[in-house]
Amino acid sequence: MLAIERKNEILNKLRAEQRVLVSELAAHYGVTEETIRRDLDKLEKEGHATKTYGGAIWGNSTKTDLSYTIRNKTNVEAKAAIARQVKTMVEDGDHLMLDDSSTALFVAKELKDKKKLTVITNSVEIVMELAGLEGWTILCTGGELKRDSLAFVGYQVPEMLRSYHVDKVIFSCKGLSEEAGITDSAESHARTKQAMLRAAREAILVLDNTKFDKTSFVQIAPLQSVTAVVTNQRPDAAWKKRFDDLSIPCYVGE
């Protein structure tokens, strides 16, 4: 099979199934995993796919909002590692804001054995995940429900968040770059995260390694707006220098 034919078949599989795994494709086509990664590199450059840990998902995730079912199955190991690190940074009794990102959902799951936390979120999934925990206080922003992401958006969200002051906000993004800072794919999500940043004493940016050197549609905030970064792989020398220059600690989850 020609390389172009294999790439087109992979593209069709992505359209149909929304995600592919490198190991499965390599076994199916009888080629090395490195060959499949090069195919996925080309599809990502063409805007058809977004590479993830061990595979790829359909579409350019820096420009679009993926459904919650796809997000929650993407980069699972990376998000779990990030969540374990964030757990060490949260104390019993803390007041938190969590955005509607899938990484924040992993964090919420990891925090469930903490005591007397107060959590404010615009994520239906996080509310459901934490419902019923004894001694916790869970507040939901309300607003217009986006069915694909199970998140509340709209002018009501910043209005509600304006009334509160919390210890920490834990939030993610679609891209982080030196030029554009922290970015997201939709203005509605960016406004929510901006309101959360204004309400918190500490801002913890959680993002997996695929988000570095990516730029999405709208800026959430400049990098210096955060007090800590948590990721799943040690950043390269250039990013380490940026963090050091801004006195922002970068933690790597394991």
Automatic annotation (TrEMBL):
- Which of UniProt's keywords are assigned here? DNA-binding, Transcription, Transcription regulation
Annotated HTH deoR-type domain ranges read 3-58
InterPro entries found in the cross-reference section: Carb_Metab_HTH_regulators, DeoR-like_C, DeoR_HTH, NagB/RpiA_transferase-like, Tscrpt_reg_HTH_DeoR_CS, WH-like_DNA-bd_sf, WH_DNA-bd_sf
The record's section on SMART domains has: DeoRC, HTH_DEOR
Q: Which GO terms describe its molecular function?
A: DNA binding; DNA-binding transcription factor activity
Q: Name one Pfam family in it.
A: HTH_DeoR
Q: Which domain of life is it from?
A: Bacteria
Q: Any idea what this protein is called?
A: DeoR/GlpR transcriptional regulator
Name the species this protein comes from. Candidatus Avoscillospira stercorigallinarum
Q: What is the lineage of its organism?
A: Bacteria, Bacillati, Bacillota, Clostridia, Eubacteriales
